[in-house]
Amino acid sequence: MKKRRLFSALLVLWLVAGCTGCLGESPEDSGTAPAQPLTLKVLYATVEAGSEAVVHAARHYTRETGVNVQISTFPYNSLQEKVFTELSRMSGEYDLIAVDTPWVPKIIRHLEPLTPYLRNAASAGDIGDFIAKLFLDTSVFDKDRPHRAPIAMDTIDLDRIASAGFDVWSLPIQSNVLTVSYRKDLFQNEAYRAEFRQQFHRELDLPNTLDEYLDIARFFTRDTNRDGLIDLYGTTLMAGKHEANFVDYKSFLSNFGGELFDEKLRPAFHSEAGVKALETYGKWILAEKVTPPDVLSYSWDEVEIAFGYGQAVMGMNYHDMKLQPNVGGQVGYFMFPGVERGGALVRGPHFGSWGLAVNKYSRHKAEAFELADYLTSAEVQRDYLRFRQHVTRKSAYAAAGALPDESLREYYDVLGRSLNVGVGRPRIRNYDQVSEAVQTAVQQYLTGKKSARAALNAAAAKVEQSMRDNGYLSPNE
């Protein structure tokens, strides 16, 4: 999950090692043809998976090893189509493939299990440096039952993974989780702070709960130039009919203790918790009006634009957001707020990650694993920080604490803590159909076509049929 910016160009980068035969005997002198350097071909995403950082690291790998690395990058939808096409025809054209987590159930039989490689790798002792929750969600699957959730653990243990019937199918390289960017300059403004204190009888601090967040969103929604029109809104949401609206709703659902499916893979999002989550989400837009008026068309791209141009004081997204130069101000970050349940604060931000998987049909599987191991290594990930890459190792987040940029230090702190409480996506082949059904329900409610309960009930019926069609539920369930 990445961000998916409006980026459609195909970038093909050839990373070529130094000249062959520049030193030592020439082919004519030796009587033998020079050995051709190994070339590894990689299918990768664009900015949504930090392509700039990965390309830079691959160049360094070529200089260190002499292995040529060819990286072809595609925007999300094009990459998904390319990956599925290549694997469906059992092509070994690409050795290493960037895989988004929801794709794994569909393509797992075309991937090479990495557990044996990890056991034999010199870096095997470093596997515990990955954020465990992230690694388990991204990389650990049961090939025969990919929908199974992996066993929970605080530190990655290959023996426990294998003994429970799972394997490792990728190495996490880019992580995404819902966080909040906010106007730190406005939060710290003394006039606003005094006004907020008088109105709410507490300090204008970072919100921990959705209720606190709503209070702040209400407070900042105002007519700043006194022309009779609201020109500053408290927050953004991603309410357009889009994958972004599904994961927005999913985050609210998790906060209220709801789930998309029960333990038997029957839809459960139409529960009381699910209805409350959707009604709360809709209330912010329809009743409280703390979001921009065109929010029903927003995905992650429009959220970035609205926040960047100073239209909103707080903005939820899957990356750090910046203000346009003419806006001025300072950006800070905090975790997606939660809900107090049973005396505890529960947060459920949606998260997901990209993994590097080895193509089962590659003729250079061992070498492809070595490249993946390098690109996700602790040392390389620390270097990724200068590219603002969403790293996946604990040591990289620790290193981010020493960055000179205060805003960036703050973002990495929030990102790392959020990944430890994030809630991943269902591990099902028909993920797209489930997302589409929930997107439709959210839009039907927000546009007044159905009540929250009726919209979710209709979506649940569609999802239940889809789960039967895909063999997850028997006809009688």
Automatic annotation (TrEMBL):
InterPro entries: Bact_solute-bd_prot1 (IPR050490), SBP (IPR006059). Pfam families: SBP_bac_1 (PF01547). PROSITE patterns: PROKAR_LIPOPROTEIN. The keyword Cell inner membrane does not apply. Residues 1-24 form the signal peptide. Keywords: Signal, Transport. The keyword Transport applies. Belongs to the bacterial solute-binding protein 1 family. This is ABC transporter substrate-binding protein. It comes from Paenibacillus thermoaerophilus.
